[in-house]
Fold:
Amino acid sequence: MTDIGHRSKQTDATPPAPTFGFECPFIFMGKAAQFCSDLFVSAKTATAIPARHPALRDALIQASLDPQVRSIAYVASTSVASEQVKLDVVVIQRDEGRFLLDVVPARRVRDVEEKGLGRVALTELGLKQIILTTEEIRHEPRYTNARLVWSYREISVPVGLRMHILQMLLDEGPMPLGELLKSIRSENDPAPAVMALACADLLHLDLVSRPLGPTTIVRCCAREEV
Structure:
């Protein structure tokens, strides 16, 4: 794989969803364009996830950059006693199990019967809940850090630079971001490439401890091979 992608020129407050194969030309208007922009895709999603609410999109961005999250799935529906039940939920796979991502401000309005069937279905699926409020999603410095890193998700990373960055992290182990950037010989600023590799789940950045900067710890993703 030679490139990670191409950075979008869009400057919206909410980072735009990458296409990753879902074509969304600018000539499309109305419902088609809206449908495409409502989909969220990352290196950890098996399929595109409907994410119309900005809080859900932010939660998905944070999960995509979280080293403890293995994968993100979308469950549209399931069967309960031979009856098809609409779920429309996001399921996160972590080291300790599978969890329903319950973003409070993005909850879908359901009637009493739907709620009852939904609870039964989720129990049968064996899902625990991760409940996130707006305040928790916007907790700093993670909120700003994740948005900043995600804005570089479509930057094109030459294969040579990618190999160099990942090999250095494998050889030297976790290191401060500033130290890593100083050690990279490149004609261009290597910082965007590091951000893009984080979005591609090839390396991990500590986005929780402090605002993104030279002291931010970078480590290679142990699950990936160079």
Observations:
- The chain is about 35% helix and 20% strand.
- Residues 101 and 185 are 41 Å apart (CA to CA).
